[in-house]
Write a structure and sequence with these properties.
Blueprint lengths: L2 H28 L5 H22 L9 H21 L4 H15 L2
Helix pairs in contact: 1-3, 1-4, 2-3
Length: 108
């Protein structure tokens, strides 16, 4: 693994840690049970919100959108994806490097 790859994994680990802290606060505050339905449901919900924010921004709905709205929804989706991966014992950064990084070695 090169320095950039190590930095990416470390950064994703830091983001995962932050997402877990926020999720813990949310679960305590609202009495949420984080089970399979919650993890999968939240990811699906956030993907729908990314889609909606994009369509609003692209002028394909009757609602105005903004880049900020889209960025916020992408952040939510990333947070829930990192939570899901952690819940399943997946190191998202390492998995990404293994799967997508393989294409970069073929490019050389």
């Amino acid at each position: 693994m090169n320095d950039n790859q190590e930095r990416t994994v470390r950064d994703l680990n830091q983001l995962t840690s932050a997402a877990k802290r926020v999720s813990d606060l949310y679960a305590r505050r609202f009495g949420v049970t984080r089970d399979a339905a919650w993890y999968l449901g939240k990811m699906t919900e956030e993907l729908g919100e990314v889609t909606s924010a994009y369509l609003n921004l692209a002028g394909q709905t009757r609602k105005d959108g903004s880049k900020s709205d889209l960025e916020n929804e992408v952040a939510d989706l990333l947070g829930f994806l990192l939570l899901f991966a952690d819940w399943q014992g997946i190191d998202a950064g390492a998995a990404f490097e293994r799967k997508w990084g393989a294409y970069l070695t073929e490019d050389k």
